[in-house]
Structure formats: C-alpha cells, structure tokens
Amino acid sequence: MYQPPHFREDRLDVMQDLIRAQPLGLLISAGADGILANPIPFQIDATRGEKGVLQAHLSRGNPQWRTLAEGAEALVVFQGAQSYVTPSWYETKRQTGKVVPTWNYAIVQVRGPVTVLDDEAWLHRQIRALTEKHESDRAAPWAVEDAPDDFLKAQIRGIVGLEIEITTMDGKWKVSQNRPEADRTGVAQGLAAEATSSADDMAALVRSYGGLE
Q1: CA 133 from chain center: how many Å?
Q2: Is the C or the N end of the chain the one with fewer CB within 10 Å?
Q3: pLDDT band at 75, cuts 50/70/90?
Q4: Bridge partner residues of 92 (DSSP)
Q5: Is the pTM of this model over 0.70?
C-alpha cells in the first residue's frame, strides 16, 4: 500500500480499534485458482503474538480455504471511515483556484500466514464469540444456543475456521493532514454539514488528525 509519511498510522492500538469497529474484512489470497477475494467478518485476539491474531470462518464450499490450507499467505483489508472531498470546501480555492477533488479514508491492511481449522469445538467457540459481540447491545439478543442442537451441528459441519497470525499491519489515515489549516477547517465543516454518519465520522478524523480540537 502506498503510504506517504503524513498519512501513515503506525499505532497498533489505533489499527486494532479500526478492525474491531469495522470487522468485515476483505480476505485476499493467490494460488492455483488465481487471486481470490471474499468479504469475511473477523475477530481480533490482541493478546496473542506481537500484533494479534485474526479469527474467522469460511463456508466449506468456498474454495479459498483450500488455497489457504496449501500455504498461501493472506492479505485482509479493513475499511474505516471514507468520504469524497470537494475542492469547494478549501480556502485555497478562493485564494488561488489551484485545487482538485480527493477522497479521504482510513484503512488497515493485514498480512500473515493462515492456519485452517476443521475443529467443531473451535468453530463453536468462534461463532459464539462473534455472535455475542454483535448481539450484546440488542434489546433481545439472539444466542447460539437458541438454535436446535442438531441444526447447529449441521451448520458447523458446513464451515471451516481460519486463524491469521498478523506479521504485518499497515495503517493509512488520509484525512486532509496535508492541507493548510484553513482548508482542514473547511473540510471538517463541510463534512459536518452533510449530516450523514459516514461524513460525521470523517469530520471527526479531520479535526483530530488536523489539530483542530
């Protein structure tokens, strides 16, 4: 990933937090079947290894797990806040007109070797942990145990588990840090005025990384 120094994010906790907040990662691998890519919900265990371990599962019918079992390294891309930025928000536009549109975003790329797990107990723990994370704030949370046992076992037989030991983690927060302060202020105000959740998230990043708070 191309990373100009002013957009690089090296803090491990910040990158791990983006993965927790945006757990649907794009799992990419290359093998005999060519380049494969699938969106997969992940969990990160930050207590294991230097940078953590990603855990997930794939449908048994998905050929990607066989490629990974043959030793292919995985690349997983996690997309955070993102937004189009119009030059109309820049003070520089009014001063010189020498501006162009751009796109702001926060993104994390993870690489590492993969272990494929065909273990019922591991898979049961993984789907329970994944479910509890995303159901915990609901008024009437669904639990894995709500499903009939024989049905659940049949579903587990249809998946395989993945663990990715994170050897490389790269973060890029392209959030207008390279613009003059007046332009950064204009971008934050312009995004806030759009009043969407995505624009609000990006406006907060522009203010934080741009020293406007």
Answers
A1: 16
A2: C
A3: very high
A4: none
A5: yes
